[in-house]
Write a structure and sequence with these properties.
This protein is mostly beta strands. Helix content is 3%, strand content 42%. It has a single domain, classed as Jelly Rolls, CATH 2.60.120.10. It contains one helix and 13 strands; from the N terminus they run E-E-E-E-E-E-E-E-E-E-E-E-E-H. It has a six-stranded antiparallel β-sheet with strand order 1-3-4-12-7-10, with no helix packed on it. Bound molecules: manganese (II) ion (MN). The site of manganese (II) ion (MN) has 6 residues, from strand 11.
């Protein structure tokens, strides 16, 4: 057992991976036989990831705020606290905050044999981000 006290290790997400400001708190990193890479990702309003894929898929769980997520070719979904989204291995997608809200989600991924957790593509343009999202129940 090892306790890691709340540390000042918050890191701003690289500009190549995000549009706008997002901050990452690492929760778990691959170690020994464990491939788990877990983090808490904090998006400022309007911030979102670039298009990307995960070699072994990804689960995100929203803990605060209101966000958006989209798989390539699918609708933009509104995601709220308690909502979980699973992205299939290799599924091209993005996730981020709503335009006028912060959003925080947990991210759970398993790295591949080379330790990679994601492959990054183009930024999500304002035109891709702007369309009105699907509203659950509307
Ligand atoms: Mn992802």
């Amino acid at each position: 057992m090892k306790v890691t006290r709340n540390s000042p290790g918050t890191a701003q997400g690289p500009s190549g991976w995000f549009t706008g400001a997002a901050y990452i708190d690492s929760l778990a990193a691959p170690s020994g036989p464990s491939r788990l890479n877990a983090s808490s990702v904090h998006f400022t309003p309007g911030a979102r990831t670039a298009w990307h894929t995960h070699p072994n898929g990804q689960t995100i769980c929203v803990t605060e705020g209101v966000g958006r997520a989209q798989g390539r070719g699918g609708p933009i979904e509104v995601i709220r606290p308690g909502d979980r989204v699973f992205f299939e291995p290799g599924e091209d997608h993005w996730h981020g905050a709503a335009p006028d809200r912060f959003m925080t989600h947990l991210s759970l991924v398993e790295v591949d044999d080379k330790g990679n957790s994601a492959t990054w593509g183009a930024h999500v343009s304002d035109e891709e981000y702007a369309p009105s999202p699907k509203i659950e129940g509307a």
